[in-house]
Amino acid sequence: MRLTYSKVIKSSIGFQNLGRQKQTRVKSLVDKKGRVLDKSIHLYRMWFLFLKLGLDCEDNKIPIYDWVNKKNIWVKVKKRFYKEWDLDDVRHLTFNNWWKKKKHLFLESEPKIVSQSDISKGVYYIKVDERQKTSDVVRGVRKLLKEKDNRHRKSTPTSKYQIVKQHKYIPTHMKYNLFIWREMGYKRRELVDLLEKEYSGFNKGKDYEESSIRRLLRLSERLILDTSDGSF
Fold first, then answer.
1. Closest listed residue to residue 49, CA positions, set 106, 8, 78, 104
2. Which of 64, 101, 131, 171 fits as disulfide partner to 73, beta carbons 3.0 to 4.6 Å?
3. Which of these, 163, 151, 160, 150, lies nearest to 25 by C-alpha position?
4. Residue 157 CA from chain centroid, whole number
């Protein structure tokens, strides 16, 4: 196989339960310290893995074929965008080990006490009387924020690195594995069998066609290119 850093990931995370959930918009995740991620950690894992695939394609000179213009596209990861990710760690670490070091890049901004010198654009400031009870302060802040949301319904994540597309987790998982299976040398009919076997818990009774494989592979290639360019 031409890939150096990437390998197939197992479908061992309770696909049957995930299959019953709506995957278009994953709820925010609050960790043990009360810090918030805008998306489920599963999607950040997929972002990491697709970036690793992009690095694999770049380092090993594996092209993505442009079927419209009939030419090869050479993957190039945007190093400046991913500067804080430590790309050598992305190449060689597991997601869990990398995440311990880099999770702070994806956390939403936390409330803090500010001084006059901290005031900047794009931030919503609330004045609180320090003599008030905490419960009264929380009640008042909730009321203010509710009024703000009614005026500005569209909210924007505040983390440094944001997932900008609407991903469905399991189909994204499938696209990742399909690309690697193809690089391992599996033919189209074998890919159909692998999909039906590995994702039977999620897609019960679904029969894949070879045309479906072709479409999913094109989508996986597009996702590698977009991720390498800084958009996931």
1. 8
2. 64
3. 163
4. 14
DSSP run (H or E) holding 73: strand 71-73
CB 166 within 8 A of CB 156: no
Low-confidence winner among 28-37, 56-65, 165-174, 199-208 (lowest mean pLDDT): 28-37
Distance in angstroms (rounded) separating the CA atoms of residues 103 and 84: 11
User: For 11-32, what is the mean pLDDT?
Assistant: 50
Please report, as a single letter, which amino acid is at residue 31.
Answer: D
* Position 5, amino acid: Y
Partners of 29 in the beta sheet? Answer: 37
Using alpha carbons only, what angle is made at residue 69 by residues 68 and 72, rounded to the nearest 5 degrees?
105
Going by the DSSP 8-state scheme, the letter that residue 125 receives in this structure is -
pLDDT tens digit sequence for 158-198 = 788 999 999 999 999 999 999 999 999 999 999 999 998 88
- pLDDT at residue 21, rounded to an integer: 45
